[in-house]
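Complex 285.
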Amino acid sequence: MPTTGFAPEANSFSIHYITIVNYEYICSAVQQIARKAGHFIAEERKNFSREAVEIKGQSDFVSYVDKKSEEMIVAALKLLLPGSGFITEEGTAGQSGEKYLWIIDPLDGTTNFIHGMPPYAVSIALMEDKELVAGVVYEVTNDECFYAWKGGKAWLNGQPIRVTEAATSKDTLIATGFPYYDFGRMDAYIETLRYFMQNSHGLRRIGSAATDMAYLAAGRFDGFWEQGLHAWDIAAGVVIVREAGGKVSDFSGGDNFLFSGELVASNSNFFNEFQQVIEKNFVNS
Ligand code: IPD
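Predicted structure with D-MYO-inositol-1-phosphate bound:
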């Protein structure tokens, strides 16, 4: 049975190419690619110097490690699924209106990486006709590969993972990312921090949104929200959280989370309370 590839189909005028994608096979191949990039990142970290850091914007950094990791990933994915498009953090390959689109963060948690602290991760997602169908987050420092494909459940290093059952904030551990370049909604942010400081087990800011999403899927966190994220930070995590039984939305509870910079994600039982607190503070105040 074909897994992925191109099957030529001739008619009298031209030759059409049909792509048949098996999500599980693709996901397995992407894990190998993410691990390879992750091993490169781990090796480079051993002798990494902060002098190699370039500043992209306020508190927004990049180095040759991010760029080289992205080049390796893009080259491998082009071979895996020829003709697919790309959205990548470091811009190695541009977007195109292809049926298949890869969304890649070659090193999520760059600030952690620069400072030599965990976690940091490789994040790779596949979209088919604008639907997210596969995601891999490889957290380098713990050698943990989280992955999922449409209809295939969610996994960590070969073991099934699932979100928690916690239903109210008093039973939850919440993850977030602090604003670092857009400070326009600080009051809403502080109010939300205040609510969850007083009504949960606590808050964590671990510095890699892709890892936040993977940890949510694995039941380590119960909820995660952040403003100002990019599609490459979260696309793979969205697939993994959903396949692990969780829910994802923008701050208003809608579907515009990938490109709006507004992300709310949690287990299903807690989702309504979580999303409503965030909507009240960020949208309705
Ligand atoms: C960042 C991390 C961080 C989050 C930032 C992201 P990057 O990604 O995910 O946790 O707070 O918003 O930009 O820049 O290290 O790939």
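Residues 23-46 form the longest helix (24 residues).
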